[in-house]
Amino acid sequence: MAINYTLSMGSVKKRLTEGSFSDVVVEASFSVYAQSDAITTGTEEGGDLVVTQPAFSYSCGGTKTFSVDGLDASTFVPFGDVTTETLKGWLLASEGVSDVKDFSYVKSSIENVAKRIYEYSKEVPAVVAGDDASGSSDFVYTPPAAPEE
User: Fold this and answer.
1) Phi, psi at residue 142, to the nearest 5°?
2) pTM, two decimal places
């Protein structure tokens, strides 16, 4: 079962000047969308009622302000040269990660979908994983321990 996700970059905010630099990107908005494969419980061969939930999904977003402290000619990228990949790199670097699946908003979106799958399923999947090229997680949801009686 796969949970596929997409990290999309939205609008950016720039300053006309910052020190000796012009058109400095200082903020970017982003969104995350995560969706599971269809969930099916039971089998016709086993005489069970087959129930299919088309998919579970979750989306969220936010903005990230980029620091201009220590900006120099070797690290400066003017607004006209900034790409989506540049912004994603800055966003990941702001959390000290290099892989999109480790970005906090992606991780929490995947966990939200995995939790909903777990709570829905009569048969708990052994692994929530995937191999979609746009991004899939190998996150495994661990349900909370049952309360002691």
Assistant:
1) -110, 115
2) 0.70
